[in-house]
Amino acid sequence: MVVSISSAQTRKYSNEFLNIGVDAGALGMANSVVATSADVNSGYWNPAGLIHLEDNQASFMHAAYFANIANYDYLAYAMPLDEKSAIALSLIRFGVDDILDTTSLVDADGNIDYTRINLFSAADYAFTFSYSRKLPVEGLSYGANAKVIRRIIGDFASSWGFGFDVGLQYQRGNWHFGLMARDITQTFNAWSVEEFTVGDLNGDGIPDEDQIPQLADQELPETTEITLPKVQIGVARKFDLGKKFGLNTELDMNVRFAETNDIISSSISISPAFGFQLDYSKMVYLRGGVGNFQNIEQFDGTKNVGFQPNFGVGFNYKGIQIDYALTDIGDQSAAIYSNVFSLKVDWSVFR
Questions:
Q1: Domain enclosing residue 277, as ranges
Q2: Among 16, 159, 179, 323, which is most exposed with the fewest C-beta within 10 angstroms?
Q3: pLDDT of residue 286
Q4: How far apart are CA 216 and CA 193, in angstroms?
């Protein structure tokens, strides 16, 4: 039986898998790329940057989180339409697989039967179509995302969601500015929840919910979930360090319209992030960054400021780029460090 409830709930943290980030190059810079992103991954970071594509590109990333319990995968493809516009398609999956389902562990006679254990997955998907176009003002471009979100928890619950993002980029000399507004119309997830009875765990013929008040009092969750808008603002400066070296630095401000654990938090919460990228002949890259500044409450009730330092390297040869990032170096935040690899291929390699 599928139950539908018309009530809706606005959450501080909703569709959080879409806030992890993509591309090991960007993750190595602590996600500080909203002003300078200019490749296939701009469909995620700032679709306005797609306009800088010179050829078709594809990107793939895989990361494992929580001691390899959760897998995070990303695939994207982008292509310029003409000198003034470009499009991209991307897919994100964050999932935990092979979860034990013990709801049927006890049979009708009250016996425990381990053969009745099934496996299921809890997975979140996001499909995004991106469009970018130059504006008449020199150096100014805009982009927009239309995204479809699918979330599945085995046979117990599933949802469909829809949302939109918009982005701007402006370049003046070596200065770059970026604005990315996510879920601008609020993103809605409509859930379908499967109603089921826990059963008779002690085998006395009486349903457990008739004996255990906590089970009888349980209510199904709201089935319409609303994701509030978020804004990322960035300013970057590029430097030429001689004939073969280049340096890109960027400072971003991540803004949520809700009170969270961010270092600056009231009705609006702000967390800064800073990243840099040093390159040699656009072939070898060294990256670093720090972000995710949070007020973390300790067991004794005191609060400390946690932050997430990141490190990354990359190598680009004839249109094939491999990047690596190590996040949360030194365990300075509540997050667990992860090793992230990504691959980017420019179609020029096939010509």
A1: 2-350
A2: 16
A3: 97
A4: 17
Segment-wise mean pLDDT, segments of 10 residues, the chain, 351 residues: 46 77 94 96 97 95 83 95 96 91 74 80 94 96 96 88 95 96 86 62 49 51 79 96 93 89 84 95 95 80 82 94 81 62 90 70
Question: Rounded to whole angstroms, how far apart are CA atoms 147 and 185?
Answer: 12
CA separation for the pair 225, 227 (Å, rounded): 7
Per-residue confidence (pLDDT) for residue 5, from 0 to 100? 39
Which residues does 268 contact at the CB level (< 8 Å), separation at least 6? Answer: 255, 256, 257, 258
**227-245 as b/e, with b when 16 or more CB fall inside 10 Å?**
bbbbbbbbbbebeeeeeee
CATH number of the domain at 340, please.
Answer: 2.40.160.40
- Which pLDDT score, from 0 to 100, does residue 82 have? 93
What is the pTM assigned to this prediction? 0.83
Which tokens sit at 251? 């400072």
Task: Indicate the number of domains in the chain.
Answer: 1
334/295 Cα distance (integer angstroms):
10
Give the β-pairing of 8-11 and 224-227.
parallel
Length of the chain: 351
